[in-house]
């Protein structure tokens, strides 16, 4: 008997198809030259516990990295804990980009360094048009919100506003709920 897929029972989010194959405007994503980005160290990814945090090896030591300037919809593998809309898509986009593939992504440690076992950093991935900043791309796709805990650049806010105007990702919902509000209501501690 052939396998039949009943689309009425399928809960797969088709927004993921757009997210994975959306074109990248590398020139708008970074003011750094390709040579500068190529000089940054490559990532050796250990794990991707959330869309804006992942663990990498640097000089044989494990460090946790948080992507700069963004907050992401909450996602949990725990069946007894609710996940936020677009949490899964955001998480899987990052996992597919840096966690499961052979992309030659680079990390800009900047002034953050590796103190305390973890840091905030910019991560760049290659495209056919040059390098792009993952945080900026997630904002453009509606997979992240500008971070509220610190100052963010005008470029970050502009990318989020463009996504809101296009009604993509989290902005496609009638009343999008910021991740920090969702986590607070669910009693989830950062």
Task: Walk me through the structure.
The protein is of the alpha+beta class. 30% of the residues lie in helices and 21% in strands. A hairpin with a 2-residue loop joins strand 1 and strand 2.
Please provide a brief summary of the model.
With 190 residues, the chain is α+β, with helices and mostly antiparallel strands. The chain contains seven helices and eight strands. Strands 1, 2, 3, 5, 6 and 7 form a six-stranded mixed beta sheet that branches. The chain has a two-stranded antiparallel ribbon with strand order 4-8.
Give unreliable regions as ranges: 1-29
Number of helices: 7
Distance between the termini: 48 Å
- What Rg do the Cα atoms give? 17 Å
- Shape type: globular
Largest sheet: 6 strands, mixed
Mean pLDDT figure: 77
Secondary structure topology:
Blueprint lengths: L14 H7 L4 H4 L4 H5 L6 E6 L2 E6 L2 E7 L2 E2 L15 H13 L6 E3 L9 E10 L2 E4 H7 L4 E2 L7 H13 L12 H8 L4
Parallel strand pairs: 3-6
Antiparallel strand pairs: 1-2, 2-3, 4-8, 5-6, 6-7
Quick tags:
21% strand, alpha+beta, two-stranded antiparallel ribbon, 8 strands, OB fold (Dihydrolipoamide Acetyltransferase, E2P), 190 residues, six-stranded mixed sheet
């Amino acid at each position: 008997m052939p396998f039949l897929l009943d689309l009425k029972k399928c809960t797969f989010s088709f927004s993921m198809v757009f997210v994975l194959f959306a074109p990248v405007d590398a020139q708008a994503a970074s003011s750094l030259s390709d040579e500068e980005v190529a000089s940054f160290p490559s990532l050796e990814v250990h794990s991707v516990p959330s869309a804006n945090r992942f663990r990498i090896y640097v000089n044989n030591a494990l460090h946790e990295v948080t992507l700069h300037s963004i907050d992401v919809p909450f996602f949990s593998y725990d069946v007894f804990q609710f996940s936020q809309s677009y949490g899964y898509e955001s998480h899987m986009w990052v996992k597919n980009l840096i966690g499961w593939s052979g992309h030659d992504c680079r990390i800009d440690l900047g002034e953050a360094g590796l103190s305390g076992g973890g840091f905030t950093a910019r991560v760049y991935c290659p495209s056919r048009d040059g390098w792009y900043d993952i945080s900026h791309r997630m904002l453009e796709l509606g997979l992240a919100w500008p971070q509220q805990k610190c100052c963010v650049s005008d470029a970050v806010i502009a990318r989020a506003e463009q996504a809101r105007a296009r009604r993509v990702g989290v902005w496609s919902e009638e009343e999008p709920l910021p991740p920090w509000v969702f986590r607070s209501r669910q009693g989830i501690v950062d």
